[in-house]
């Protein structure tokens, strides 16, 4: 049985990934959040939760600067815990280590973040960059975030972005295989699987592993942020991720007590 999330003394910041959003609006009304149900659950246990919106496909450095500005503007100098999904985890690492925010962050938990890059980005850039890059740029939209997810780019990123010694790092990796894998994930999952092994449909378990502790959750890349897996739900094996985020906060609270 999953325990109720503790009330932390520091706020929690939820950072979205590539092409992400804080919440979608339909007819000017909130329709779906990027982390559906997670903010509401954590706030119901007394936590202060923030959900910044950064550029959808801009570079890590640009998104990290936007994240820093958001945190300082909305939270101030109060230290925060950060939970970053996918590219959002790399944004947070950059912000902490290279934008002088190490003293403002207590912990970083990355969710399905490709710390070593993803071979699906390699595949997509090799085959389609000559088509999508001109389209993005003609529309005035940056596509640098896509290139930042390649394995070569992430290798350089890791060399230039060491963990801050004062920040606690942990990670969640996703594992999604047949019969749970939806058709939309089968192509990227097969590409990543051949090169890197077990994955969540786009990011391998190996690449998502980072920090002092890595937990593995069953589900695809978006299931990790509580977008339901219909096949798991039908089989009665789907677990609401909001409660599992409570476990993340419990670990954060335990780390605080141990320091």
Question: How would you summarize the topology of this molecule?
Answer:
Layout: E1 12-15, E2 23-26, E3 29-33, H1 38-44, E4 49-50, H2 60-74, E5 80-85, H3 87-98, E6 105-111, H4 119-138, H5 144-147, H6 151-160, E7 168-175, H7 183-196, H8 205-208, E8 214-218, H9 230-234, H10 241-258
Parallel strand pairs: 1-4, 1-5, 5-6, 6-7, 7-8
Antiparallel strand pairs: 2-3
List its salient traits.
alpha/beta; 6-stranded parallel beta sheet
Share in helix: 40-55%
Main beta sheet strand tally, sense and closure: 6 strands, parallel
Tertiary shape = globular
Secondary-structure-derived class:
alpha/beta
Going across the major beta sheet, what is the strand order? Answer: 4-1-5-6-7-8
- Multimerization state: single chain
What is the correct CATH architecture? 3-Layer(aba) Sandwich
| Distance, first to last CA | 27 Å
Low-confidence stretches: 22-30
Instruction: Name the helix and strand elements from N-terminus to C-terminus, one letter apiece.
Output: EEEHEHEHEHHHEHHEHH
How many domains? The number is: 1
The CATH superfamily turns out to be Alpha/Beta hydrolase fold, catalytic domain
């Amino acid at each position: 049985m999953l325990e109720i999330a503790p009330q932390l003394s520091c706020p929690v910041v939820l950072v979205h990934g590539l092409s992400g959003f804080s919440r979608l609006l339909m007819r000017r009304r909130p329709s779906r959040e990027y982390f559906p149900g997670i903010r509401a659950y954590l706030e119901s246990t007394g936590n202060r939760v923030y959900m910044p919106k950064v550029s959808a496909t801009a570079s890590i450095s640009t998104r990290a600067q936007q994240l820093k500005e958001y945190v300082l503007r909305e939270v101030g100098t109060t230290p925060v815990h950060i939970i970053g999904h996918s590219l959002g985890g790399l944004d947070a690492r950059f912000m902490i280590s290279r934008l002088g925010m190490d003293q403002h962050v207590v912990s970083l938990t990355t969710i399905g973040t490709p710390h070593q890059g993803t071979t699906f980005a390699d595949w997509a850039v090799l085959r389609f960059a000559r088509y999508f890059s001109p389209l993005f740029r003609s529309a005035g939209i940056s596509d640098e975030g896509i290139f930042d997810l390649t394995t070569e780019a992430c290798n350089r990123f890791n060399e230039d972005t060491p963990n801050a010694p004062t920040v606690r790092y942990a990670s969640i990796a996703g594992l999604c295989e047949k019969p749970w894998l939806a058709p939309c994930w089968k192509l990227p999952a097969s590409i990543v699987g051949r090169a890197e092994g077990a994955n969540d449909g786009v990011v391998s378990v190996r690449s998502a592993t980072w920090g002092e502790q890595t937990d593995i959750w069953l589900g695809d890349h978006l299931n990790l942020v509580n977008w339901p897996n219909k096949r798991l739900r039908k089989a009665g094996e789907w677990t609401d991720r909001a409660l599992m985020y409570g476990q993340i906060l419990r670990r954060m609270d335990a780390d605080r007590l141990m320091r």
